[in-house]
Protein backbone atom coordinates (compact mmCIF):
# COMPACT_ATOMS: atom_id res chain seq x y z
CA UNK A 1 0.00 0.00 0.00
CA UNK A 2 1.24 3.54 -0.69
CA UNK A 3 0.99 4.41 3.01
CA UNK A 4 2.44 1.98 5.46
CA UNK A 5 0.60 3.55 8.37
CA UNK A 6 -2.64 3.44 6.43
CA UNK A 7 -5.42 4.95 8.49
CA UNK A 8 -8.34 3.53 6.63
CA UNK A 9 -10.45 0.90 8.35
CA UNK A 10 -10.44 -1.11 5.12
CA UNK A 11 -7.12 -0.86 3.29
CA UNK A 12 -7.99 0.96 0.07
CA UNK A 13 -5.27 2.44 -2.07
CA UNK A 14 -5.00 6.22 -2.20
CA UNK A 15 -6.50 6.18 -5.66
CA UNK A 16 -9.50 4.04 -4.92
CA UNK A 17 -10.06 5.97 -1.75
CA UNK A 18 -10.06 9.26 -3.57
CA UNK A 19 -12.53 8.01 -6.10
CA UNK A 20 -14.83 6.70 -3.40
CA UNK A 21 -14.49 9.90 -1.49
CA UNK A 22 -15.16 12.34 -4.26
CA UNK A 23 -18.15 10.49 -5.59
CA UNK A 24 -19.69 10.57 -2.12
CA UNK A 25 -21.78 13.39 -0.74
CA UNK A 26 -19.20 14.40 1.83
CA UNK A 27 -18.94 17.89 0.40
CA UNK A 28 -21.76 19.31 2.38
CA UNK A 29 -21.34 22.84 1.06
CA UNK A 30 -23.11 21.68 -2.05
CA UNK A 31 -26.23 20.68 -0.15
CA UNK A 32 -29.25 22.79 0.63
CA UNK A 33 -29.79 21.22 4.06
CA UNK A 34 -31.63 23.14 6.76
CA UNK A 35 -31.79 22.87 10.52
CA UNK A 36 -35.11 22.74 12.32
CA UNK A 37 -34.92 23.86 15.94
CA UNK A 38 -37.57 23.87 18.65
CA UNK A 39 -36.78 25.31 22.08
CA UNK A 40 -36.54 22.51 24.61
CA UNK A 41 -35.48 24.13 27.87
CA UNK A 42 -32.17 23.75 29.64
CA UNK A 43 -29.15 21.96 28.21
CA UNK A 44 -27.43 19.38 30.40
CA UNK A 45 -24.65 16.87 29.86
CA UNK A 46 -21.31 16.70 28.06
CA UNK A 47 -20.05 17.72 24.64
CA UNK A 48 -16.70 16.77 23.11
CA UNK A 49 -15.03 19.70 21.39
CA UNK A 50 -13.50 19.06 17.94
CA UNK A 51 -10.12 20.15 16.66
CA UNK A 52 -9.96 23.74 15.44
CA UNK A 53 -10.83 24.33 11.80
CA UNK A 54 -8.62 27.40 11.76
CA UNK A 55 -5.63 25.37 12.93
CA UNK A 56 -6.34 22.29 10.79
CA UNK A 57 -6.35 24.22 7.48
CA UNK A 58 -2.89 25.81 7.80
CA UNK A 59 -1.52 22.58 9.29
CA UNK A 60 -2.69 20.64 6.25
CA UNK A 61 -1.03 23.23 4.00
CA UNK A 62 2.19 22.74 5.97
CA UNK A 63 2.23 19.25 4.46
CA UNK A 64 3.43 20.94 1.25
CA UNK A 65 6.67 21.91 2.98
CA UNK A 66 8.07 18.39 3.13
CA UNK A 67 8.43 15.22 1.10
CA UNK A 68 7.83 13.34 4.34
CA UNK A 69 4.49 12.40 5.86
CA UNK A 70 2.64 14.78 8.13
CA UNK A 71 0.22 12.88 10.32
CA UNK A 72 -2.49 15.08 11.80
CA UNK A 73 -4.81 13.95 14.58
CA UNK A 74 -7.92 15.60 16.01
CA UNK A 75 -8.81 17.05 12.60
CA UNK A 76 -12.47 18.11 12.35
CA UNK A 77 -14.30 16.52 9.41
CA UNK A 78 -15.60 19.75 7.92
CA UNK A 79 -16.35 20.96 4.44
CA UNK A 80 -13.33 23.31 4.55
CA UNK A 81 -11.05 20.44 5.52
CA UNK A 82 -12.38 18.43 2.58
CA UNK A 83 -11.77 21.41 0.29
CA UNK A 84 -8.17 21.63 1.54
CA UNK A 85 -7.78 17.91 0.93
CA UNK A 86 -8.98 18.38 -2.64
CA UNK A 87 -6.67 21.37 -3.12
CA UNK A 88 -3.61 19.43 -1.93
CA UNK A 89 -4.53 16.39 -4.00
CA UNK A 90 -4.95 18.64 -7.03
CA UNK A 91 -1.34 19.68 -6.51
CA UNK A 92 -0.25 16.04 -6.48
CA UNK A 93 0.04 15.47 -2.73
CA UNK A 94 -1.18 12.16 -1.35
CA UNK A 95 -3.80 12.67 1.30
CA UNK A 96 -5.27 9.83 3.32
CA UNK A 97 -7.91 10.04 6.00
CA UNK A 98 -9.87 7.70 8.23
CA UNK A 99 -12.81 10.09 7.77
CA UNK A 100 -13.05 10.33 11.56
CA UNK A 101 -10.27 12.58 12.80
CA UNK A 102 -6.94 11.73 11.20
CA UNK A 103 -5.14 12.74 8.06
CA UNK A 104 -1.83 11.71 6.53
CA UNK A 105 -0.44 14.18 4.04
CA UNK A 106 2.53 13.32 1.92
CA UNK A 107 4.00 16.15 -0.13
CA UNK A 108 6.62 13.94 -1.82
CA UNK A 109 4.53 13.60 -4.97
CA UNK A 110 3.59 17.27 -5.48
CA UNK A 111 4.00 18.00 -9.18
CA UNK A 112 1.82 21.05 -9.66
CA UNK A 113 2.16 24.48 -8.04
CA UNK A 114 -1.20 25.81 -9.19
CA UNK A 115 -4.19 26.42 -6.87
CA UNK A 116 -7.25 26.93 -9.06
CA UNK A 117 -10.03 29.50 -8.75
CA UNK A 118 -12.84 27.00 -8.28
CA UNK A 119 -11.38 25.81 -4.97
CA UNK A 120 -9.89 29.09 -3.72
CA UNK A 121 -13.18 30.88 -4.36
CA UNK A 122 -15.02 28.46 -2.05
CA UNK A 123 -12.47 28.83 0.74
CA UNK A 124 -10.30 31.86 1.35
CA UNK A 125 -7.86 29.91 3.51
CA UNK A 126 -6.61 28.29 0.25
CA UNK A 127 -4.22 31.25 0.02
CA UNK A 128 -2.23 29.41 2.70
CA UNK A 129 -0.73 27.13 0.04
CA UNK A 130 1.11 30.14 -1.41
CA UNK A 131 3.90 30.48 1.20
CA UNK A 132 4.79 26.79 1.54
CA UNK A 133 4.61 26.09 -2.21
CA UNK A 134 6.77 29.06 -3.11
CA UNK A 135 9.29 28.23 -0.39
CA UNK A 136 9.70 24.59 -1.39
CA UNK A 137 9.34 24.73 -5.18
CA UNK A 138 10.45 28.29 -5.95
CA UNK A 139 7.18 29.10 -7.69
CA UNK A 140 3.45 29.16 -7.04
CA UNK A 141 0.33 30.25 -8.81
CA UNK A 142 -2.64 30.72 -6.55
CA UNK A 143 -5.99 32.24 -7.44
CA UNK A 144 -6.61 35.50 -5.58
CA UNK A 145 -9.43 35.00 -3.11
CA UNK A 146 -12.16 37.54 -3.72
CA UNK A 147 -14.06 39.49 -1.09
CA UNK A 148 -16.49 37.66 1.11
CA UNK A 149 -19.68 38.30 3.01
CA UNK A 150 -17.92 39.79 6.04
CA UNK A 151 -15.57 42.18 4.26
CA UNK A 152 -13.07 42.78 1.49
CA UNK A 153 -10.33 40.73 3.17
CA UNK A 154 -7.23 41.65 1.16
CA UNK A 155 -4.02 39.55 1.13
CA UNK A 156 -1.62 42.46 0.60
CA UNK A 157 0.35 41.65 3.76
CA UNK A 158 0.97 38.08 2.61
CA UNK A 159 2.30 39.38 -0.72
CA UNK A 160 4.31 42.22 0.79
CA UNK A 161 6.08 39.79 3.13
CA UNK A 162 6.90 37.33 0.38
CA UNK A 163 8.23 40.17 -1.79
CA UNK A 164 10.47 41.26 1.09
CA UNK A 165 11.79 37.69 1.03
CA UNK A 166 12.78 38.13 -2.61
CA UNK A 167 9.71 36.78 -4.40
CA UNK A 168 8.73 38.35 -7.70
CA UNK A 169 4.98 38.65 -7.66
CA UNK A 170 2.58 39.59 -10.40
CA UNK A 171 -1.20 39.44 -10.54
CA UNK A 172 -2.36 37.97 -13.83
CA UNK A 173 -5.84 36.86 -14.82
CA UNK A 174 -6.96 36.80 -11.20
CA UNK A 175 -3.98 34.75 -10.06
CA UNK A 176 -1.04 35.57 -7.82
CA UNK A 177 2.02 34.39 -9.74
CA UNK A 178 5.04 34.19 -7.50
CA UNK A 179 8.59 33.17 -8.37
CA UNK A 180 11.61 32.96 -6.09
CA UNK A 181 14.82 33.85 -7.99
CA UNK A 182 17.23 30.88 -8.02
CA UNK A 183 14.40 28.83 -6.56
CA UNK A 184 14.90 30.06 -3.00
CA UNK A 185 13.33 32.70 -0.79
CA UNK A 186 15.73 34.83 1.22
CA UNK A 187 15.46 35.62 4.91
CA UNK A 188 14.28 39.18 5.58
CA UNK A 189 12.79 41.46 8.20
CA UNK A 190 9.06 41.79 7.66
CA UNK A 191 6.86 44.19 9.61
CA UNK A 192 3.21 43.47 8.98
CA UNK A 193 1.09 46.65 8.86
CA UNK A 194 -1.92 44.88 10.34
CA UNK A 195 -2.06 41.89 12.61
CA UNK A 196 -3.16 39.10 10.30
CA UNK A 197 -3.63 35.46 11.22
CA UNK A 198 -3.38 34.08 7.69
CA UNK A 199 -0.57 36.47 6.75
CA UNK A 200 1.49 35.42 9.76
CA UNK A 201 0.90 31.73 8.94
CA UNK A 202 1.79 32.08 5.27
CA UNK A 203 5.00 34.00 5.99
CA UNK A 204 5.97 31.70 8.83
CA UNK A 205 5.68 28.64 6.61
CA UNK A 206 7.59 30.37 3.82
CA UNK A 207 10.38 31.45 6.18
CA UNK A 208 11.05 27.91 7.43
CA UNK A 209 12.67 27.00 4.08
CA UNK A 210 14.14 30.42 3.20
CA UNK A 211 17.87 30.99 3.04
CA UNK A 212 18.99 32.79 6.20
CA UNK A 213 17.08 34.40 9.02
CA UNK A 214 13.59 35.91 8.77
CA UNK A 215 12.24 38.21 11.44
CA UNK A 216 8.47 38.51 11.42
CA UNK A 217 7.21 41.55 13.33
CA UNK A 218 3.65 42.33 14.42
CA UNK A 219 2.67 38.68 14.22
CA UNK A 220 -0.75 37.36 15.15
CA UNK A 221 -0.60 35.38 18.41
CA UNK A 222 -3.83 33.43 17.97
CA UNK A 223 -3.66 29.87 19.41
CA UNK A 224 -3.97 28.49 15.87
CA UNK A 225 -0.80 30.36 14.81
CA UNK A 226 0.97 28.91 17.85
CA UNK A 227 -0.29 25.41 16.97
CA UNK A 228 1.10 25.74 13.44
CA UNK A 229 4.44 27.03 14.71
CA UNK A 230 4.73 24.13 17.16
CA UNK A 231 4.02 21.62 14.40
CA UNK A 232 6.61 23.29 12.15
CA UNK A 233 9.19 22.95 14.93
CA UNK A 234 8.37 19.22 15.13
CA UNK A 235 9.00 19.11 11.37
CA UNK A 236 12.48 20.52 11.92
CA UNK A 237 11.87 24.27 11.58
CA UNK A 238 13.90 26.65 13.71
CA UNK A 239 11.51 29.22 15.15
CA UNK A 240 11.86 31.36 18.26
CA UNK A 241 9.37 33.77 19.79
CA UNK A 242 6.39 31.47 19.24
CA UNK A 243 3.27 33.02 20.77
CA UNK A 244 4.77 36.52 20.76
CA UNK A 245 4.44 39.29 18.21
CA UNK A 246 8.00 38.77 16.95
CA UNK A 247 8.99 35.39 15.55
CA UNK A 248 12.51 34.73 14.32
CA UNK A 249 12.92 31.91 11.84
CA UNK A 250 16.24 30.45 10.82
CA UNK A 251 15.69 28.81 7.46
CA UNK A 252 16.62 25.14 6.99
CA UNK A 253 17.20 23.15 3.80
CA UNK A 254 14.39 20.73 4.34
CA UNK A 255 11.68 19.74 6.77
CA UNK A 256 10.56 16.22 7.65
CA UNK A 257 7.26 14.60 8.55
CA UNK A 258 5.86 14.41 12.07
CA UNK A 259 2.73 13.67 14.05
CA UNK A 260 0.67 16.49 15.48
CA UNK A 261 -2.67 16.82 17.21
CA UNK A 262 -4.77 19.86 16.25
CA UNK A 263 -5.52 22.32 19.08
CA UNK A 264 -9.16 22.23 20.32
CA UNK A 265 -11.59 24.59 18.64
CA UNK A 266 -12.08 27.58 20.95
CA UNK A 267 -14.80 29.02 18.72
CA UNK A 268 -16.84 25.83 18.63
CA UNK A 269 -16.42 25.55 22.42
CA UNK A 270 -17.43 29.18 22.90
CA UNK A 271 -20.52 28.66 20.76
CA UNK A 272 -21.72 25.79 22.99
CA UNK A 273 -21.02 27.85 26.10
CA UNK A 274 -23.18 30.67 24.72
CA UNK A 275 -25.93 28.14 24.04
CA UNK A 276 -25.96 27.10 27.71
CA UNK A 277 -25.76 30.73 28.87
CA UNK A 278 -28.97 31.31 26.90
CA UNK A 279 -30.95 28.15 27.73
CA UNK A 280 -29.66 27.63 31.26
CA UNK A 281 -28.46 24.26 32.55
CA UNK A 282 -25.08 22.67 33.15
CA UNK A 283 -22.76 21.34 30.46
CA UNK A 284 -19.17 20.13 30.53
CA UNK A 285 -17.03 20.49 27.43
CA UNK A 286 -14.40 17.76 27.06
CA UNK A 287 -11.19 18.10 24.97
CA UNK A 288 -11.38 21.86 25.32
CA UNK A 289 -8.53 24.33 25.77
CA UNK A 290 -9.73 26.91 28.34
CA UNK A 291 -6.36 28.71 28.32
CA UNK A 292 -6.95 29.71 24.69
CA UNK A 293 -10.29 31.39 25.40
CA UNK A 294 -9.93 33.50 28.50
CA UNK A 295 -11.61 36.63 27.09
CA UNK A 296 -14.69 34.58 26.19
CA UNK A 297 -14.82 32.82 29.57
CA UNK A 298 -14.49 36.17 31.37
CA UNK A 299 -17.42 37.61 29.40
CA UNK A 300 -19.58 34.58 30.18
CA UNK A 301 -18.77 35.00 33.87
CA UNK A 302 -19.73 38.66 33.58
CA UNK A 303 -23.02 37.50 32.04
CA UNK A 304 -23.74 35.45 35.18
CA UNK A 305 -22.46 31.99 34.22
CA UNK A 306 -20.50 29.90 36.68
CA UNK A 307 -17.45 28.65 34.82
CA UNK A 308 -15.04 26.05 36.15
CA UNK A 309 -12.09 24.73 34.19
CA UNK A 310 -9.38 22.09 34.23
CA UNK A 311 -6.54 21.59 31.78
CA UNK A 312 -8.80 20.22 29.05
CA UNK A 313 -12.36 20.75 30.22
CA UNK A 314 -14.79 23.58 30.91
CA UNK A 315 -18.03 23.36 32.87
CA UNK A 316 -20.65 26.05 32.54
CA UNK A 317 -23.60 26.33 34.86
CA UNK A 318 -26.29 28.92 34.27
CA UNK A 319 -29.30 29.26 36.51
CA UNK A 320 -30.48 32.76 35.61
CA UNK A 321 -31.27 34.95 32.64
CA UNK A 322 -27.95 36.18 31.25
CA UNK A 323 -26.91 39.76 31.93
CA UNK A 324 -26.06 41.83 28.84
CA UNK A 325 -22.30 42.32 28.30
CA UNK A 326 -20.44 44.84 26.18
CA UNK A 327 -18.13 43.36 23.56
CA UNK A 328 -15.30 44.83 21.53
CA UNK A 329 -13.60 42.45 19.12
CA UNK A 330 -9.84 42.65 18.68
CA UNK A 331 -6.86 40.42 17.99
CA UNK A 332 -5.94 37.66 20.45
CA UNK A 333 -5.88 37.58 23.46
CA UNK A 334 -8.78 40.06 23.34
CA UNK A 335 -12.32 39.05 22.40
CA UNK A 336 -12.39 37.15 19.05
CA UNK A 337 -14.40 38.40 16.11
CA UNK A 338 -15.43 34.78 15.45
CA UNK A 339 -17.45 34.86 18.72
CA UNK A 340 -19.13 38.21 18.12
CA UNK A 341 -22.31 36.91 16.46
CA UNK A 342 -22.87 34.23 19.11
CA UNK A 343 -22.52 36.76 21.95
CA UNK A 344 -24.96 39.02 20.13
CA UNK A 345 -27.47 36.15 20.18
CA UNK A 346 -26.94 35.90 23.94
CA UNK A 347 -27.23 39.66 24.47
CA UNK A 348 -30.45 39.67 22.46
CA UNK A 349 -32.22 37.70 25.23
CA UNK A 350 -30.15 39.07 28.12
CA UNK A 351 -31.24 41.46 30.81
CA UNK A 352 -30.19 45.02 30.00
CA UNK A 353 -28.63 46.91 27.15
CA UNK A 354 -25.28 46.25 25.51
CA UNK A 355 -22.91 47.61 22.94
CA UNK A 356 -21.05 45.35 20.53
CA UNK A 357 -18.19 46.85 18.51
CA UNK A 358 -16.58 44.98 15.64
CA UNK A 359 -13.05 46.16 14.86
CA UNK A 360 -11.68 43.35 12.66
CA UNK A 361 -14.08 43.01 9.72
CA UNK A 362 -16.05 45.87 8.17
CA UNK A 363 -19.25 44.01 7.39
CA UNK A 364 -19.80 41.51 10.12
CA UNK A 365 -23.32 42.33 11.28
CA UNK A 366 -25.15 40.27 8.67
CA UNK A 367 -26.93 38.34 11.41
CA UNK A 368 -28.61 41.48 12.77
CA UNK A 369 -31.56 41.69 10.35
CA UNK A 370 -32.20 37.97 10.81
CA UNK A 371 -32.08 38.20 14.62
CA UNK A 372 -34.41 41.20 14.43
CA UNK A 373 -36.85 39.12 12.38
CA UNK A 374 -36.97 36.78 15.36
CA UNK A 375 -37.91 39.66 17.66
CA UNK A 376 -34.51 41.01 18.71
CA UNK A 377 -34.01 44.71 19.34
CA UNK A 378 -30.72 45.61 17.66
CA UNK A 379 -29.70 48.76 15.84
CA UNK A 380 -26.43 49.16 14.02
CA UNK A 381 -24.45 52.35 13.72
CA UNK A 382 -21.27 51.81 11.70
CA UNK A 383 -19.07 49.32 13.52
CA UNK A 384 -21.20 49.31 16.65
CA UNK A 385 -24.45 47.53 17.42
CA UNK A 386 -26.73 48.57 20.27
CA UNK A 387 -28.85 45.84 21.78
CA UNK A 388 -31.74 45.96 24.21
CA UNK A 389 -32.48 42.55 25.66
CA UNK A 390 -35.95 41.10 25.08
CA UNK A 391 -37.74 38.47 27.19
CA UNK A 392 -38.61 36.17 24.30
CA UNK A 393 -37.80 35.54 20.65
CA UNK A 394 -40.18 34.01 18.15
CA UNK A 395 -39.08 31.26 15.79
CA UNK A 396 -38.86 32.07 12.08
CA UNK A 397 -37.22 30.87 8.91
CA UNK A 398 -33.85 32.60 8.78
CA UNK A 399 -30.68 32.33 6.75
CA UNK A 400 -27.18 33.60 7.16
CA UNK A 401 -24.43 34.59 4.82
CA UNK A 402 -21.48 33.42 6.86
CA UNK A 403 -20.38 30.76 9.26
CA UNK A 404 -20.55 32.43 12.66
CA UNK A 405 -23.68 34.39 11.75
CA UNK A 406 -25.36 31.04 11.07
CA UNK A 407 -24.28 29.83 14.50
CA UNK A 408 -25.91 32.86 16.13
CA UNK A 409 -29.21 31.96 14.45
CA UNK A 410 -29.02 28.39 15.76
CA UNK A 411 -28.47 29.78 19.27
CA UNK A 412 -31.45 32.10 18.92
CA UNK A 413 -33.54 29.12 17.76
CA UNK A 414 -32.72 27.26 20.99
CA UNK A 415 -34.69 29.81 23.03
CA UNK A 416 -37.29 31.08 20.53
CA UNK A 417 -40.95 30.15 20.79
CA UNK A 418 -42.24 27.90 18.01
CA UNK A 419 -40.11 26.52 15.22
CA UNK A 420 -36.93 28.04 13.79
CA UNK A 421 -35.63 26.92 10.42
CA UNK A 422 -32.05 27.92 9.67
CA UNK A 423 -31.59 27.81 5.93
CA UNK A 424 -28.36 27.56 3.92
CA UNK A 425 -26.49 25.71 6.61
CA UNK A 426 -23.69 24.88 4.24
CA UNK A 427 -22.07 27.89 5.91
CA UNK A 428 -22.44 26.17 9.27
CA UNK A 429 -21.11 22.89 7.89
CA UNK A 430 -17.90 24.68 6.96
CA UNK A 431 -17.03 25.17 10.62
CA UNK A 432 -19.13 23.02 12.95
CA UNK A 433 -18.74 19.28 13.06
CA UNK A 434 -22.03 17.46 13.75
CA UNK A 435 -23.56 20.52 15.39
CA UNK A 436 -27.03 19.02 15.48
CA UNK A 437 -25.72 15.82 17.09
CA UNK A 438 -23.62 17.67 19.64
CA UNK A 439 -26.41 20.04 20.71
CA UNK A 440 -28.97 17.22 20.48
CA UNK A 441 -26.79 15.19 22.86
CA UNK A 442 -27.28 17.74 25.65
CA UNK A 443 -31.03 18.04 25.17
CA UNK A 444 -31.62 20.48 22.30
CA UNK A 445 -34.39 19.64 19.83
CA UNK A 446 -32.55 20.16 16.58
CA UNK A 447 -32.80 18.19 13.39
CA UNK A 448 -31.22 18.33 9.94
CA UNK A 449 -33.64 18.47 7.06
CA UNK A 450 -31.88 17.18 3.95
CA UNK A 451 -32.10 19.58 1.04
C1 LIG B 1 -8.58 34.16 10.24
C2 LIG B 1 -9.63 33.13 10.56
C3 LIG B 1 -11.00 33.79 10.71
C4 LIG B 1 -10.93 34.92 11.71
C5 LIG B 1 -9.79 35.89 11.39
C6 LIG B 1 -9.59 36.95 12.46
C7 LIG B 1 -8.73 31.18 9.45
C8 LIG B 1 -8.87 30.16 8.38
N1 LIG B 1 -9.65 32.15 9.49
O1 LIG B 1 -8.92 34.74 8.98
O2 LIG B 1 -11.93 32.80 11.14
O3 LIG B 1 -12.15 35.63 11.71
O4 LIG B 1 -8.55 35.17 11.26
O5 LIG B 1 -9.33 36.36 13.69
O6 LIG B 1 -7.84 31.10 10.28
N2 LIG B 1 -5.95 42.02 6.37
C9 LIG B 1 -5.35 42.94 5.54
N3 LIG B 1 -4.35 42.51 4.69
C10 LIG B 1 -3.93 41.21 4.67
C11 LIG B 1 -4.54 40.28 5.53
C12 LIG B 1 -5.54 40.71 6.37
O7 LIG B 1 -5.70 44.12 5.52
O8 LIG B 1 -3.05 40.89 3.88
C13 LIG B 1 -7.02 42.46 7.29
C14 LIG B 1 -8.35 41.76 7.02
O9 LIG B 1 -9.08 42.38 5.99
C15 LIG B 1 -9.02 41.85 8.36
C16 LIG B 1 -7.85 41.75 9.33
O10 LIG B 1 -6.68 42.07 8.60
O11 LIG B 1 -9.64 43.10 8.51
C17 LIG B 1 -7.67 40.40 9.97
O12 LIG B 1 -7.64 39.41 8.97
P1 LIG B 1 -6.82 38.05 9.14
O13 LIG B 1 -6.31 37.94 10.54
O14 LIG B 1 -5.84 37.94 8.04
O15 LIG B 1 -7.96 36.96 8.93
P2 LIG B 1 -7.82 35.59 8.17
O16 LIG B 1 -6.48 35.00 8.37
O17 LIG B 1 -8.34 35.75 6.79
* Mass-distribution shape: elongated
Count of individual beta strands:
26
Which segments are poorly predicted (pLDDT under 50) over 5 or more consecutive residues? 1-29
Terminal-residue CA separation: 38 Å
Written account of the structure:
There is one protein chain. The chain has 15 helices and 26 strands. The protein is of the alpha/beta class and 451 residues long. Helix content is 31%, strand content 24%. The radius of gyration is 22 Å and the shape is elongated. Helix 5 (130-137) packs parallel to helix 7, helix 7 runs parallel beside helix 8 (223-234) and helix 11 runs parallel beside helix 13 (403-415).
